[in-house]
Amino acid sequence: MLPGRGRNGHAARFASILGTRIAWTAAGDGEFFCPGCGGDRNYQRLTGQRRFTLLGLPVLPRGETGPVVECAACRRHFGTDVLDHPTTTRFSAMLRDAVHTVALAVLAAGGAGSRTALEAAVLAVRAAGFDDCTEEQLAALVEALEADTGRITGEPCGAGLAIELHEALDPLAPHLATVGRESILLQGARIALADGPYTPAERDVLATVGAALTICSDDVTRLLAAAARTPS
Question: What DSSP assignment string belongs to the chain?
Fold first, then answer.
């Protein structure tokens, strides 16, 4: 059989005459974490219009497609759900704010007057990214937090403080592996244990932290007990 005379040859010739093409139109842009590149990149949000082509020229509309997200670096296309994931910069800021909020909440449960608890909190907050954090700053912020939420030191975690914790932790939790969520809880536990065993108020705050991080109550109990058995 001569080349191009079989079924495949006919299909190839047909495809070269009639086909489809997508015309993309930019509908927005920004910065995102590109799964293809593995880092923060610029993107364009594209909507597409499918068209039949005749000899490579668009002739008839065939309907819309997309939208998609196109990476400005690798040019790959992704579903728009990729924009739900924070950029590396945003993720770092969310993690830093989460640790800071947990530290303040635990201190507000009774550790703000303890030098060892304040020292442990400063270490955790600095490690998270607030390099210039001081004990005096944290103590002042605890006072401001109590004034804002109407909470008294040593009380169980009230609605105002619970809202603060959930606002900081809820957006972060889906993007953390189990070990990452547990690490944040354990940082709070170490601050609470710095000046002695957990108080009921500290346990209540840490339980709220665990719930906001979507850690089940049994695992919260296990992790807090393990932290209490670990020498500081």
Answer: --TT-SHHHHHHHHHHHEEEEEEEEEEEEEEEEETTTTEEEEEEEEEEEEEEEETTEEEEEEEEEEEEEEETTT--EE-GGGGGSPPHHHHHHHHHHHHHHHHHHHIIIIITT-HHHHHHHHHHHHHHT-TT--HHHHHHHHHHHHHHHT--TTS---HHHHHHHHHHHTTTGGGS-HHHHHHHHHHHHHHHHTTSSPPHHHHHHHHHHHHHTT--HHHHHHHHHHHHHS--
